[in-house]
Amino acid sequence: MTHQRRWLGVGVGGCVLALLSACEQHPASPAQGPHVGSWRANAGPALAMAVVSGSATAPIEAHFNVPAIPKVGAPFVVDVVVTAGAVAPVMMVEVTGEEGVTVLTPQAPVSFDKLAAGHDVQVAIEARADTPGAHLLHVVAVMSLPSGPQSKKFELPILVVPAS
After folding, report:
1. pLDDT, tens digit, for every residue of 11-60?
2. What distance separates the 2 farthest-apart alpha carbons in the chain?
3. 92 near 14, Cβ under 8 Å?
């Protein structure tokens, strides 16, 4: 039981660090909507690593940035950069929110074609939270590979503050 509590503490500490680094005040990304390229390379340290959910081994990484502090009831933006770790003819990215978090855009999975290994795709998420506190956005990325589809689920911890 003590071992489980220690890992829980490490996990919570990691989420708090991700929340603090991801919710820094940064100018909004110039890219709106889906984008393919090397956006992550130009973003610098403003990106936090997304938390992998489950035991998927798909060659996919995800990072995110919250350009402005989210407030209850107001739309906020989260920039997500998903990196293909292998050549993929197609990658689909789907975003959902936990209960109390509404994803405004994208409302359907976003598809990217002909990705090279190491290629970044960016999805600008617009969402709204009903209550203050820590919330999760869920991102599922699915790559079509010659061996068959592979997916990985990520959690994006978002800290929402009360409206002023």
Report:
1. 444 444 444 444 443 333 333 444 444 444 555 557 899 999 987 889 99
2. 51
3. no
Whether residue 70 is preceded by a cis peptide bond, meaning omega within 30 degrees of 0, is no
Which pLDDT tens digit goes with each residue over 114-139? 999 999 999 999 999 999 999 999 99
Q: Is the dihedral of CA 134, 94, 30, 104 positive or negative?
A: negative
DSSP run (H or E) holding 83: strand 76-84
SS3 category, 16? helix
The domains of the chain are located at: 2-160
- C-alpha 132, offset from chain centre: 19
Query: How many other C-beta atoms lie within 10 A of the C-beta of residue 3?
Result: 7
CATH architecture of 2-160: Sandwich (2.60)
And the tokens for 47? 């990106």
Tokens linked to 92: 């689909």
How many residues are there in the chain? Answer: 164
Structure tokens, 144: 């079509």
Cα 17 to Cα 22: distance, rounded to the nearest angstrom: 8
Task: Sort residue 100 into left (φ over 0), alpha (ψ -120 to 50) or beta.
Answer: left
